[in-house]
Amino acid sequence: MSDADDSTENPRSGGPVEANIPDDVETPDIEEAESADSDVEEDAKRTPRGLPLRVQDLRKEFGGITAVDGASFSVEKGSLTGLIGPNGAGKSTTFNCIAGVHQPTSGHVYFQGQDITGYRPHQVANRGLMRTFQIARELEEMTVLENMMLAPRGQRGESLTYSVFPGLRGQVVTQEEDLREKAWETLELFEIDHLASEYAGNLSGGQRKLLEMARVLMADPEMVLLDEPLAGVNPTLEHKLLERIHALREEGLTFLLVEHDMDIIMQNCEHIIVMHQGQVLAEGDADTIRNDDRVIDAYLGETL
Ligand SMILES: Nc1ncnc2c1ncn2[C@@H]1O[C@H](COP(=O)(O)OP(=O)(O)OP(=O)(O)O)[C@@H](O)[C@H]1O
User: Fold this and answer.
1) Which residues have a Cβ under 8 Å from the Cβ of 79 and sit 6 or more positions away?
2) Which of 24, 240, 242, 266 pairs with 205 at a CA distance of 20 to 30 A?
3) What is the pLDDT of residues 102-142, one digit of tens each?
4) Which residues form a coiled coil (predicted)?
């Protein structure tokens, strides 16, 4: 999926923005707009901190294609929520709108009660909502430990500040030590500490997935968006990764997972959101979803 043709992208890079409505979309009159604004304010107030993520009437158009068509859903704190749907249902686009990679055409994304619609990816990440990214080519030439130590949230590093205020240097050393310790602990948690000196480029597909996940945790996220985290992962590593996800969830971390493997979703997610043609078709636990005729129709032929 490329962003190159994303003609509706909002150029603003600051904080929360108004919905970016293209010229050819009718805008409501002032009275309606004011009432819509107050509804949104009311809704934001209704988003308690215990409900980290709320997507409301999300819409994303790419030129003439409507990829997400008014999707609304919430994710509860500490849950492992699955986002599924047939090919082209709008899952990745929704993910990217949440993570700030795409700017929604309209609608809102609230995280921990705050409207983060229109935030850029680093701003979303700074709020504690993070998605995994594939290890980029440049990072392949670094060791696993170096990958872990690279740019976590709040890292201070060497800078001009320390030549001006040399007294702060000691703090940097402590911070570097803390960072290293945390990197080792996280690698141990994912049982890839024995690969710490290995170049990331030499890892197997499954080991990379573990590293991608471990890297995200270095930033102390509140919530993690996982897009196909188990694709190409062998059953042993898959089991290990799922075990870690469940353990982290027990500690209060929240996950939203897009995964094509229905068995994984049905066996691991307590709440499942089904998208179809850019909209939320159904929501519920595995049994509810399995027995929903609309979901069966949408998948027609795929095993649930
Ligand atoms: N950058 C883009 N430019 C144009 N159309 C796009 C773009 N990204 C997605 N689309 C279209 O939007 C629709 C939804 O795509 P999306 O990738 O979000 O679905 P998905 O549910 O993640 O699909 P899959 O399971 O196949 O990955 C599709 O019709 C897709 O072709």
Assistant:
1) 249, 254, 255, 270, 271
2) 266
3) 999 999 999 999 999 999 998 999 899 998 877 777 788 99
4) none
CA–centroid distance, 210 to ligand 1, in Å, is: 26
Q: Which SS3 state, helix, strand or coil, does residue 224 take? A: strand
Distance CA 243, CA 126 (A): 26
Rounded CA separation 295/288 (Å): 10
SS (H, E, C) 50-69: CCCEEEEEEEEEECCEEEEE
Handedness of CA 28, 276, 213, 198 (dihedral sign): negative
ipTM score assigned to the predicted complex: 0.98
Could you give the dihedral angle defined by the CA atoms of residues 217, 223, 227 and 231, in that order, rounded to the nearest 10 degrees? Answer: 50
Q: Residue 90: CB within 6 Å of ligand 1?
A: yes
Backbone φ, ψ for residue 243 (5° rounding): -60, -45
- The Å distance, Cα 1 to ligand 1 centre, comes to 7
The residue whose CA has the least distance to atom 23 of ligand 1 is 88
231 lines ligand 1 (CB under 6 A): no
Which residue has its alpha carbon closest to ligand 1 atom 8?
A: 1
Burial class (CB in 10 A: 0-12, 13-18, 19+), 91: buried
Separation of alpha carbons 106 and 302, rounded Å: 32
In this structure, what token pair is assigned to residue 104? 């929604």
Q: How far is CA 224 from CA 148, 158, 186, 189, in A?
A: 17, 29, 15, 17
Which range in 100-109, 147-156, 212-221, 239-248 is most confidently predicted, on average pLDDT?
Answer: 100-109
